[in-house]
Amino acid sequence: MSDHVGAGRPTAVVIGASAAGLFAAAALTEFADVTIIERDTLPEGAGPRRGVPQARHAHLVWSGGVAAFGELLPGVVDDIVARGGRLVHIMGDMVSRAPNEVWFRRFTTTRHRNLVCSRDLLDSVLRDRVLADERVTVAQATTAVRLEGDAERVTGVRVRTDEGEAALTADLVVDASGRGSRAPRWLTGLGLPEVTERAVDAGVTYATRLYRAPDSTTTAGFPVVNVQANPAKAPGRGGIVLPIEDGRWIVTLAGTRGGEPTGDPDAFVDFALGLGHPVIGELLRGAEPLGGVTTTRGTRNHRRYYEKMRNWPDGFTVLGDATAGYNPVYGHGLTVAAQCALAIRHVLRSTGLTPPGTARRLQRAAARPVAAAWDLAVGQDAHYPGATDTPPTVVERLLARFVDHAVATGARNPRALEALLDVMSLEKPATRLFSPDMLVPMLLGPRRQHLREPPLTDTERTIARLGR
After folding, report:
1. Coil, strand, or helix at residue 348?
2. DSSP letters along 222-241, please?
3. Range of the domain at 191
4. pLDDT, tens digit, for every residue of 406-444?
5. Is the whole model's pTM more than 0.70, yes or no?
6. Residue 305's domain is classified under what CATH number?
7. Alpha carbon distances (Å) from 138 to 94, 177, 195, 228
8. What is the distance, to the nearest Å, from the Cα of residue 8 to the centroid of all Cα atoms in its chain?
């Protein structure tokens, strides 16, 4: 393994070949030759791998992420759609019950589109695009052991392979190794203080099973069906039916402490029938299961505030879940990863990769999309019993109540829904919820009745074998 990918250009090392690492590599190729360090052996095509256990569960990419994908890798969203993914109109192609137990009307005037596919397919397309770049090299079955350098500057990373250890030098090292990142220990090993961390854990367990969808649903563009948990009624239980490629549904069920789903295949449909509304369980009665049930318990929101550290070494940046991981139910991880990569590209276009202080600027730029997703996630999860040692403040409770009103308004008013989706999609800051588009219908109406049943069409009910 050579110390440098090429001569004459700066060099960067990215730790981790999951989505965050691939996005970071794509952003960095404009400024450096990039080596991606990956401890797994990457699959050929759309296959699972050990380092992404969460890939078994339902994933979607909010429209803010779709835009970031396209900006980083032009045409990549079209590639995903060509291989079986789907751009889903929100709310036209969705049947969704909000946490406050009202069903969103299926307005078709909003511009937002979510990208829906299996995580295996998404990662495969991203790998194909990024690793085809001659400025990118991937070192598989290679583990990052520690940082090289000192508290002032990171000069590379020490890696281990079956052949032994070696030092890989670089002008910039990016840690995109996920929730299991060892960056806190590496930094204290260089003599830096411990990073401030915060966790908010709603105690959510996820259980996922694949189904072969009823044949007629695969050609009719069957909607995403989502029943969100209600934080005001612990334990919170929810679920989602996500139509994906190859005529399959990926179905993820979730429950907080005291209401967790299990890995028992015989209990899966019964759990779905026991959600706040039984529509998901009713859909599964007409679908053929494919394989068993996969469960995951490590779903807490966990943030490391690297951007607030008083001293930060040049030559090192932390991105993706290594900085902040979120309860997957909010679907923000992939969007944040792409937006962070765009943020670092923007900084590097103005400063270059090697000047002193660049790494600190990169860390602070990446913190902005992280903070937006964090506030949305913990604003909900902090209200579950036992989620945090510091219960929500009066201000946080008032904000949560306002968000409930915003959701209730968006569920029945298209202008308000547009504002709500701008925020939920991480396209605009939360202040968008205080715009006239939201406040006018919230305060003055018109006030349509809330829907109390899922707004499936008669055709959708028929093809999914549901009764009225």
Report:
1. helix
2. PPEEEE---TTSSSPEEEEE
3. 11-51+120-199+301-368
4. 999 999 999 999 999 999 999 999 999 999 999 999 998
5. yes
6. 3.50.50.60
7. 38, 14, 29, 39
8. 36
